[in-house]
Amino acid sequence: MDNQKGMSISFETFTWKIENFSKQNTKKLQSKTFRIRGYKWRIRLYPLMKNVDHFSLYLMVADSLPPYGWNRNTHFKLALVNQLDGNKSVVKETQQKFNGGYRSWGSFFVNLSDFYDSKQGYLLNDTCIIEAHVCFSDLSTLEANNLKKITPTKDSKSGDQAARNSESTQQEDDKEAETEIETEISDESETFSSSTCGSSETEWEIQSSDLTLKDLLDLASLGKEEAACVPLLEEACIWHPSLIRSQRKSSRWFKLWAFTSLGQVLHLLKTSKVKDMNEDACNRLQGLWEELVKHSGFQLSWLEPYVQSALDMKTHLDKTDEVNKLKDSVVALEIKMKKLREELVAAEAEFEVARRALAEARKGFIEMDLNADLGYAMF
């Protein structure tokens, strides 16, 4: 347990040791479920992709809970342990409200170049160590102003023993949660907010709003087609809170148009296959996208590469048709060549039989001039 005497806060610690890190699927890397204060949690690593140059961690709710109507105030710390010098461990501390719109909270920790450099101590022998320190005290008795401060600390080793105790007493719960989480929380529902701010004072600020899509739109009034886009919109708003912030002061009808139009684009990208992107589909996507960019007020640079890639599929399909026609032609000629080869082999075999028969027939046979007179001698 971690104790902060000044605020009488007690933490319980979970340690996540990731071995063979280079062999892990870092696009979907998360810890096993652990239970603290009767709640189930997971640590999730920010997807490490080509366009990501930083290492970020998130604490996420692992319970199966309804999308709305619940909330959970939690004070916690996440730590990236420095295995060479504990004083250089990176620890981020905050209090946040988890609810249907914000199931996870996280922050930037280090640049990827520093993380992968073994001399820095964060990834050593292809192993990194991450800790989650979750408060299990009654937060209602604590002063909110003190808890909301973000104070990066250097006490990364303080929870080692508690982590071992926590893991040993929670093995059965973890086994149960491992099975439960796979069936109850899909990849689509395990969405989380992203923050890449540099200073400690603003690291968590981008996620500080409690507004959700439900607060802006009357979701119950949406038609069947629009309602099908809501899960995608909720996921996008969690990843990009600016979508909600940009529409706070817009009129009801403008919000409805903006989000339903965005939902249509997301739904088209999510449900369409490459073969579906014919000229009509591309024209529809192009029209929706141009209206969104020009009139919605959304900051959509994060979505633009995906839209452009989808629009490029028309050219790809045309090229695919050309390649397939040439491929069919090559296959047809190959079949014809194979058939001709088989005929040639049969002809060669027949020729050899005829040649041998001819040689046999010529034995003892004297050729004569067939045009010569037969003649006969009478005198």
Automatic annotation (TrEMBL):
<dbReference type="Pfam" id="PF22486">
    <property type="entry name" value="MATH_2"/>
</dbReference>
<feature type="compositionally biased region" description="Acidic residues">
    <location>
        <begin position="170"/>
        <end position="190"/>
    </location>
</feature>
<feature type="compositionally biased region" description="Low complexity">
    <location>
        <begin position="191"/>
        <end position="201"/>
    </location>
</feature>
<keyword id="KW-0378">Hydrolase</keyword>
<feature type="region of interest" description="Disordered">
    <location>
        <begin position="150"/>
        <end position="201"/>
    </location>
</feature>
<feature type="domain" description="MATH">
    <location>
        <begin position="11"/>
        <end position="134"/>
    </location>
</feature>
<keyword id="KW-0175">Coiled coil</keyword>
<feature type="coiled-coil region">
    <location>
        <begin position="323"/>
        <end position="364"/>
    </location>
</feature>
<dbReference type="InterPro" id="IPR002083">
    <property type="entry name" value="MATH/TRAF_dom"/>
</dbReference>
<protein>
    <submittedName>
        <fullName>Ubiquitin carboxyl-terminal hydrolase 12 isoform A</fullName>
    </submittedName>
</protein>
<dbReference type="InterPro" id="IPR050804">
    <property type="entry name" value="MCC"/>
</dbReference>
<dbReference type="InterPro" id="IPR008974">
    <property type="entry name" value="TRAF-like"/>
</dbReference>
<dbReference type="GO" id="GO:0016787">
    <property type="term" value="F:hydrolase activity"/>
</dbReference>
